[in-house]
């Protein structure tokens, strides 16, 4: 039983961690938390299941999906984020505008697709067939998802240390100050939305074989990804992945041991408890601001 | 809101009627001829129509209203209601309970003869509550037992089987027909899930002096069903009531069962066969059954009526059905619309009070899916004997007419 809980915690926690990493990518240059992230992921999963993209070889299909979702995210940046930030970099109107964009996506999806879920096959040579190893039961695809999540953390870490990452940190610290130093925050914001959209598309692609592609999948992932972000610490990609694993494990344990119907209570109680003890996130990285 | 008219009269009919009215007028009887059967001036029947046109459920719920649209065509072909065109006022509820009070306000302003919809247990509860004082006759698709309580909601008429009826049929199938003694329940954490879980527990206690060996309740956005399925497996469940309005949850539960090689006999309330089920072992799907209407089932000897088959074929041809013929044909709205047309013609009135009085006396009305009867207190119109158990895999048989009708389970 414990083995099952750990496997579920790692696999689904990796998805939650990826959602939270998507939040981080967009938050860095804008201080915006993108409430449309769940629906961007849903688009990724649905496109992976739909023709003609779903009929392409997996890698090509995944690349197409990431590109399409990146473009949708860029459109969101153009209509829902930049106009708000242009008025004031500290304005909080993005809460409503990103939510509104999320509703627009849900609306379009509701017209295009029914609520019937679609299966998406994992890429060769991975499969959903369950293997038994040392008391653990898992599929090769589940291992693949965990590996991709870890790889995403490493790649985002490399990006963070690059010239682009330095510019992003400067914009995050002081958008107007960065502009005075010759950095174009608007261009960086656009790039971040493209990258964040691609990451959301990838998360949808990865989630589709596990959760099935469905128009209803976005909201649940958004909430759990947001929980991972809160517990892991905004801006800390390693932290959010670990937080995703912790929350995934607590969720699975809640389903196995808690009284029927109280899994959400267990999950969010655990989240509150962690935040009470570690208010700056699991790894406790305080936000630093260099002036 | 969209309002349109379904012309109920042919050109010849109109001219004949006009000539007759003119003649009667000339005889000094014009007032009598022009007075509507309701006695309040010429007035066409107006239908209040609540359907999600926007939002996440818009495409998913479209098939559910196909039957009502076909009924409108049939009413039109029969000359409308009381010889007049029928007006339809469509209202978008976005598939949301929160929209119902605003939709109710618009319905009250429209003063429809009767209301079709909304769909979904939570939406229906919100709607009937908001419309309770308006005395508008209404039928919506919600399975909660209280929706058929004529004392509580005197103007709502339930033309679907309720959760208690469903629970009785499911428990009888598992316990009596299949002889299973280790019955488990898995439901979603929602109004519907809670209602049917309680009904199954109550039925097992009252009818068989037993209780479920495991009860699992999952959140509708649960990512992984493995822990719930493992709990059922550990409890030794051999017969399972699986009730959720989320097709995704059903597929994820079956996937967790397939991964564990755990194949209990399952009774659900949804027999929609979707492509995603194709990945599961046949042994698992062969043990999957669901509650349905007797009129929509067949056996080796007994076939559905020609009327049913014709309607199914029409539903399958309709562009809004989108392959979800099972949802479309089990929807209450075709039977409701045709019943209302009959009641209007029988009473020769559009007065809601007269229509309600007539509805409360409906007995054994032959609907497409089942016989319908009401009393002033009992507004749950489907008789227990018209509810049965069908097999999921019969959706693949030619007799199912594209997965809409179902083979009745052996022994039922």
UniProtKB/TrEMBL annotation, chain A:
Family as reported in the entry's similarity comment: Belongs to the binding-protein-dependent transport system permease family. LivHM subfamily.
Subcellular location: Cell membrane
Entry membrane topology: Multi-pass membrane protein
Pfam families in UniProt: BPD_transp_2
Annotated TM spans: 6-25, 32-50, 56-75, 91-114, 134-159, 193-212, 264-281
Principal localisation: membrane
Molecular functions per Gene Ontology: transmembrane transporter activity
GO cellular component terms attached to this protein's record: plasma membrane
Keywords: Amino-acid transport, Cell membrane, Membrane, Transmembrane, Transmembrane helix, Transport
Name of the protein this chain belongs to: Branched-chain amino acid transport system permease protein
Keyword Membrane (UniProt): yes
From TrEMBL, chain B:
Keywords from the named record: Signal
Transmembrane segments: none
Record's signal peptide: 1-21
Gene3D superfamilies per the UniProt record, alphabetical: 3.40.50.2300
Leucine-binding protein domain: residues covered: 46-383
InterPro entries per UniProt: BCAA_transport, Leu-bd, Peripla_BP_I, TAT_signal
Keyword ATP-binding: no
Sequence similarity: Belongs to the leucine-binding protein family.
Designated name of the protein: ABC-type branched-subunit amino acid transport system substrate-binding protein
């Amino acid at each position: 039983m414990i083995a099952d809980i750990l496997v579920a915690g790692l696999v689904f926690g990796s998805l939650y961690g990826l959602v939270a990493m998507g939040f981080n990518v967009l938050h860095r240059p804008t201080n915006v938390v993108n409430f449309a992230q769940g629906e961007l992921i849903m688009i990724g999963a649905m496109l992976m299941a739909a023709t003609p993209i779903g009929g392409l070889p997996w890698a090509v299909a995944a690349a197409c999906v990431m590109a399409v979702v990146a473009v949708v995210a860029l459109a969101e940046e153009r209509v829902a984020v930049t106009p708000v930030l242009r008025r004031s970099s500290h304005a909080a109107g993005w809460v409503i505008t990103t939510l509104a964009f999320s509703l627009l996506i849900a609306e379009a999806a509701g017209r295009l697709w029914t609520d019937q879920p679609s299966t998406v096959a994992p890429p060769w040579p991975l499969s959903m067939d369950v293997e038994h190893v040392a008391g653990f039961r898992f599929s090769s695809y589940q291992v693949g998802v965990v590996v991709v999540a870890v790889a995403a953390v490493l790649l985002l870490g490399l990006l963070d240390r690059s010239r682009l990452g330095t510019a992003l940190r400067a914009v995050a610290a002081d958008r107007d100050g960065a502009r005075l130093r010759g950095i174009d925050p608007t261009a960086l914001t656009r790039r971040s939305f493209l990258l964040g959209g691609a990451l959301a598309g990838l998360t949808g692609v990865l989630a589709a074989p596990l959760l099935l592609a469905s128009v209803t999948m976005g909201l649940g992932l958004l909430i759990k990804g947001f929980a991972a972000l809160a517990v892991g610490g905004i801006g800390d990609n390693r932290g959010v992945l670990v937080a995703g694993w912790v929350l995934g494990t607590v969720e699975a344990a809640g389903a196995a041991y808690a009284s029927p119907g109280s899994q959400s209570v267990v999950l969010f109680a655990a989240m509150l408890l962690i935040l009470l003890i570690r208010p700056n996130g699991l790894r406790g990285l305080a936000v630093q601001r260099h002036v | 809101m969209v309002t349109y008219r379904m012309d109920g009269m042919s050109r010849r009919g109109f001219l004949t009627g006009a000539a007759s009215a003119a003649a009667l007028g000339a005889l000094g009887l014009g007032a009598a001829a022009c007075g509507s059967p309701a006695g309040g001036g010429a007035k066409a029947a107006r239908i209040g129509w609540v359907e999600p046109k926007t939002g996440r459920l818009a495409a998913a719920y479209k098939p559910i209203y196909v039957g009502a649209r076909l009924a409108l065509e049939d009413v039109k072909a029969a000359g409308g209601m009381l010889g007049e065109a029928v007006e339809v006022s469509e209202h978008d509820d976005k598939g949301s309970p929160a929209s119902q009070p605003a939709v109710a306000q618009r319905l009250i302003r429209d003063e429809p003869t009767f209301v079709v919809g909304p769909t979904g247990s939570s939406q229906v509860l919100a709607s009937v509550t908001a419309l309770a004082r308006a005395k508008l006759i209404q039928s919506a698709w919600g399975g909660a037992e209280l929706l058929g309580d004529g004392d509580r909601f005197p103007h709502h008429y339930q033309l679907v089987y309720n959760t208690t009826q469903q629970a009785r049929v499911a428990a009888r199938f598992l316990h009596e027909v299949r002889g299973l003694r280790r019955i488990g329940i898995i439901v979603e954490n929602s109004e519907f899930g809670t209602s049917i879980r309680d009904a199954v527990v109550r039925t097992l206690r009252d009818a068989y002096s037993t209780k479920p060996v495991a009860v699992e309740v999952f959140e509708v956005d649960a990512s992984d069903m493995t822990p719930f399925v493992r709990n059922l497996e550990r409890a030794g469940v051999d017969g399972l009531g699986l009730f959720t309005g989320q097709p995704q949850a059903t597929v994820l539960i079956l996937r967790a069962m397939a991964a564990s090689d755990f194949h209990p006999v399952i009774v659900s309330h949804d027999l929609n066969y979707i492509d995603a089920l194709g990945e599961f072992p046949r042994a698992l799907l062969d043990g999957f059954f669901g509650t349905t209407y007797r009129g929509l089932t067949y056996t080796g000897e007994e076939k559905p009526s020609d009327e049913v088959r014709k309607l199914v074929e029409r539903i399958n041809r309709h562009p809004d059905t989108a392959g979800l013929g099972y949802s479309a044909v089990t929807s209450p709205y075709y039977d409701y619309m045709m019943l209302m047309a009959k009641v209007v013609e029988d009473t020769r009135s559009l007065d809601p009070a007269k229509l309600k009085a007539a509805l409360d006396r409906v007995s054994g009305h032959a609907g497409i899916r089942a016989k319908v009867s009401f009393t002033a207190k009992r507004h749950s119109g489907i008789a227990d004997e018209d509810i049965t158990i069908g097999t999921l895999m019969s959706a693949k048989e030619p007799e199912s007419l594209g997965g809409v009708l179902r083979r009745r389970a052996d022994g039922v």
